[in-house]
Amino acid sequence: MPRKTPALNAIIRIRLRQAKHMNTFQSISAAAAQALLAQPDTQLVDIRDEYAFGEGHIERAQRIDNGNVGAFIAGADKNTPLIVCCYHGISSQSAAQFFIEQGFSEVYSLSGGFEGWKNEFPFVR
């Protein structure tokens, strides 16, 4: 393995910084999302309906809908990671892109949605 020089380290740091400022969302697996959620500043929103959310959701998830999305955007830290969760990982893709367009710098759509998550990890009932 080649030795990293100070110049190479600087390039790596620049590229990592650039990667954090996404212009589109990325898909994230349940396992990767769980690891990202280990960071206390990671935000998690659930866009499913109130009933589905009440039946079960990922711990720390905040349910948002058209009625409270504006307040969420106004109060959220747009420079910390945001994971968007839906039923199966389809609707969260357009919601994730919406958050990118609202100025969030690091947004992920949970692949498989809540259904995929609950098959692998614990959740709140």
Structural commentary:
There is one protein chain. With about 120 residues, the chain is an alpha/beta fold. It has one domain (about 20-120): Oxidized Rhodanese, domain 1, CATH 3.40.250. Helices cover about 40% and strands about 15% of the residues. It is built from six helices and five strands. It has helices at about 5-20, 30-35, 50-55, 70-75, 90-100, 115-120, and strands spanning about 25-30, 45, 60-65, 80-85, 105-110. Strands 1-5-4-2-3 form a five-stranded parallel sheet. α5 links the parallel β4 and β5 (about 105-110). The longest helix has 15 residues, at about 5-20. It is globular. The N and C termini lie far apart (about 50 Å).
